[in-house]
Amino acid sequence: IDKESTVHYQVMVLIHPSLSHSFGYDSERRSNLMLLDDRTLVFIAGNLLVLLQVHTKEQRYLRSCSGEGIGAITAHPSNEYFVIAEKGNQPLILVYEYPSLRLYHILRGGTELVYSSVDFNLDGSILASVGGAPDYMLTLWDWRHEEVMLRCKASSQEVYRVRFSPHNPELLTSSGTGHVKFWTISPTFTGLKLQGVMGFFGETSATDVEGFVELPDRKVVTGTEWGNLLLWDREAIKVEICRIERQSCHVGTAQPFSLEDGLLMTFGSDGVIRGWDIEKINMADTHSGRLEMEPINELVVGHNVCLSSVVRSPLPNSFIWFAQDSNGAIWKLDLSFTNTTPDPECLFTFHAGSIHGLDVCKTSHLMATTAPDRSVKVFDFLAKKQLTTSCFNQSGTTISWAPPWVKASSGLLATGFEDGVVRLLELYRPQSLYALSRSSCEEDGKLRLKQAFKPHSESVTALAYERNGEILATGSADGTVFFFSVGEKYLPIGFIHVPSPVQALEWSPASHSNNRLLILCWSGHVVEVNCPNPKDQEPLKTFLLPELHRRSFRFQSIKSRIKEEILRLQALKEEKKKKAKELLTLIDAKQEEDEEEEEEKEEELPPIYTPDPPSPLYCGFYSEPDHFWLSMGGFDSGYLYHCKFSENQDEEPEKRKDEPFHFLPIHNADNDPICSITFSSSRELLLCGMHSGSIRVYPLQPGDLSLTSMQSYWVLSLHDNQNGQLHHIRCSHDDLFVLTAGDDGNIFSFTRRPPEELQSSLQRKAAMIPSPSVSIPFNYIAISNGNNTDFSSLSYSEKPEEEQDNLEDEQALLEAREKMWDIPSKNQIESIEKKKEELMALEAHMNQHILGLRHSKVCLVSSLHAQIQRLQNIQDRLALNLHQPVPELPNVLPGETPQTELQINRSNLERYDVLGENKWVSQFDAQLVSLRSQKLHIDDHLKRAELCRLTHIKEMLLLKHFESRKSSLQITERIKEDNSLEQCKAQLEEKMRDIAKIQESEKALTAAFKASLGENEFENFLIKVFKKKIKRVKKTEMAGDDEEEEDSDEEDSDEVNWNEVQYSDTEEEDVLNDSVCPPGCEPELFEHALQQRERRLDLEDLLMEEKEAAEVLRKECDTLKKEKMLKSKRKAAENDLDMITREIQEKMNKLDILVPVKLHQIEFVIDDGMPRDLSQALVLNKCELTRLQEGIQQLQAETLPEKDLQTHAKIISDRRDMKAKIQVLEKKCDEQMMSKFGRLVDLEDLQTLPENRRHEELRHEKLLKESACDKQIKQLDVRSHVGCILFLAWV
């Protein structure tokens, strides 16, 4: 806040908004999900750390201490602490305790601007951090003592993450843009040292490494951008892992994330989690450089899912993981991969990417947003929840909530899209529809498409309703503004061209006399046009409005002149100060010094500068008629410029150069321009959204159009300072809330009052959702014949005959039948109900009035009777000549007091007894009872049929909803392709069998011919004649006479019999003359050889035709898709169909079905009585329950022997395996003994040996020497004995 300004404390309290809720999630940020316990998720939202309770959805917040953002987060292995690594100049690392959220330690000096990743080692004693540009510094911290252990430059490129090895505390791995680096903490004589080795990709293409997993044997598995996995051994790639036939492991980027029970778990941007056999990966052959394998387990999270990080539940032995979806969601996954594994659950959904549009309802606490993720969301910021989401084919670019005078329900949204389409969406509350159909609905609100039109060729950038709600203006990046008349259906009026893409549209306020539209263009052009009148527009061939009056303004930069003026004023101030100090000096000397200083000052003034291209225009608004304020970006930021339209409008808009006539400096905004501006409803507060993501709130004086009181301000920075430009800021209709949406994807709601005071003032906990104007169930039908009949003129005598038909009534019935299924809108229903209530009130009032009149009449009659009695008494005392006739008195008719007939008295009882004795009356009563019973039975059947019909309608609507998704799978086309391929294969196989038969026939013919020759000296000659190859010419059919045909046949036969031949069994070419039988050869054999040759040639021709047909079929098979591709596509389509079928079944199971149950059928007793609430009861057929219980006992009885057999077989198998293992281990033990001791030793004796190894070695040497000495003594004894014998013999 400006220190020089003085603002009362109470005023600042009124403008001080506090954070109410965060509706956004920066899902595109790396590793933006952390888990502190099994129910608390943590993620970064702008400059906040959000702690989200999974079950209650409550949020707690920790704000960045520096106020410039958060770079990375991580949790301690014990989950007793967590770390926030910030952004900014010399950012801090903050260690917090959990769950107290008390600041525990502060680490300083780890990097210059931003931290990109932090991680604890396995025991949590060391913290590793890596910084971003420009230093990329890797630092190891003794965080408990706030000291740096080791530090080193990690890389010269961006580093995404750093992780300690879970198996070796001395190893780390870092990865990032085009690199992966392996670190070792090595002890040296000077202390610990951090040594890093960069991974060498070699022949593999370099890739950005998002994720990796360290293996126990110091190998590392990393992901790639193309979806495969890389196994690193030290600094080189050992093998690249892919699927069979070189299919990628994942579609898109692949990231390994965990090693679980021998499975390497990976996820990809395709939304699939797969488990791979790590033992097979470790045993991969390195010669080929590629390992093809299929995953063991697979889990498809969902369609349109792009996983970017996963965290595991801290509960022991838990298979629950939480996944971050870059498309704006948080998932709960069970990775146990068992038959009972539940499907993935989407816990929360958010916008993905920057927010392109935000607007609030003018009558309720509702907010609508749109974003590039092709979705439109509606939020209840009072109840702090998301109401509904609708998805489209294109990205949303802008949104505007229609004012209440446009749509009585206040639920109409105008939304612009990237392809130039504008869609009108209506928000309604579906509970009323489901309540009318006697069903339930979980959704609090729904959006339905009311109308769509495409006025632009490029994206729609601005939407604005005219102040009276009669015209909608749409602006686009194609440089056009289109006008539509507002009604039940929006009709086009026309469009105009503007000099550049439209940035914003602003209608003149109600205080202005003229209704005009201010068009703000991105290039600095401002165009003002009068509001078009739909009635004045003549039908033309084009919607162009050339005659629409307009004025133009083109912003000319004056910031350099402003700076020059500021410098000049500063120089004048300094000059005055110096003159005051130098009053006692000489005038001449002072003048010379002043001239020199002026010359120096003039030299220091900057030159006049005009930016090229011009600065962008961010926002603007009307101040008074013909005057407006502009906020510029780029060079001209830091000021609000007050502008007006020039009277001279003859110059073309592109050549104009208009300067503002006034400006207002904005504190600390030279590099932080104002991107969006809004006012409170009382215009006492000016709210600004800044380029840095901060919010500024300026208090204004009432009626201050020139913004002279815009001096002091309150500022709050919650959006990301680098990429959280605040282009959308709005106030709620009651000014109690402030809503903001930035390019960082975060949406925040702020409240200007404490929660207790807010609830007491609102008296409600949720926003009012508009009622539907769509169709409602068929139970509600309004029939009106439009007759204005005076019922007072009717009498019973005018009752029409039964056979007489009323044409008007018949017409009304026809209309009612036609409109039987046309369900009135919610407004019509409310109007009908209101009229019914009014009619009932009038009837009650009329009844009370009639009863009062009747009571007055009864009192008056009784009073008259009393007066007559008194009069009669008086006459009795008078003379007879004085008597006069008593007037007739009115009586109270029995029909006027029908309640007296229901009073029990003796006369009524006697009359009832008389009627009861009449047999005809008894028969009538019996028939009446029977008819009542039949009526109840029929009513029961009708109700059951109605309930069944309602259930069928729900199921039909549900099936229609999924019908489009089923049709998009194109299962029938893929089945046709498979059938055509199978048919082609069958034909090809049949042709191959025919070819084989022909070849066998040819072999049989050759063998039979050789056998017919027998022993003959012309055998070789006849075989050559038989095998001679002849080029046969087909006989041509001539159109001549028979003789010509015979001649042609003879010529053809000659050609057949005489030709050159080649022999496969000879090396030289011989020429045979097969026209004449050689002398000595039998003519029958020669003719037989020629006939058999013809048969052989016929078979060869037939074989050639079959081969050609087979080749055609083979080519036809090749033209079709490959078999495995077809099977994979069909399998994927079948999986999608199964998923849709399962989803349909789940939806079907969630449909509520009403089942009438009698009291004797209910067996739900609590505390010896049936509870009033039966919502927890289960409706089940008792016979079916008994059958299921008996089935359980049968299955248990059947499976018990099988389990015993399986257990026995398993024990035998385990025993066999253990014997084999024991033999292997004994063999290995013997080999170790032989290599170490040179012989087999007893391990028990070895364990009893003393611990002094040297003593044992000396004792062993002693034994060896003793044995050697014993041998020598024996040899000497033998020699001496032999010597003695020889000596004796000699003697």
From TrEMBL:
This is Cilia- and flagella-associated protein 44. InterPro entries: Beta-prop_EML_1st (IPR055439), WD40/YVTN_repeat-like_dom_sf (IPR015943), WD40_repeat_dom_sf (IPR036322), WD40_rpt (IPR001680). Flagellar protein involved in sperm flagellum axoneme organization and function. Residues 70-286 form the EML-like first beta-propeller domain. Keywords: Cell projection, Cilium, Coiled coil, Cytoplasm, Cytoskeleton, Flagellum, Repeat, WD repeat. It is found in: Cytoplasm, Cytoskeleton, Flagellum axoneme. Residues 588-611, 1036-1057 are annotated as: Disordered. The keyword Cytoplasm applies. WD repeats lie at residues 453-486. Residues 1096-1150 form a coiled coil. Residues 591-605, 1039-1057 have a biased composition (Acidic residues). SUPFAM superfamilies: WD40 repeat-like. It comes from the Eukaryota. Belongs to the CFAP44 family. The gene is LOC114473681. GO terms for biological process: cilium movement; cilium-dependent cell motility.
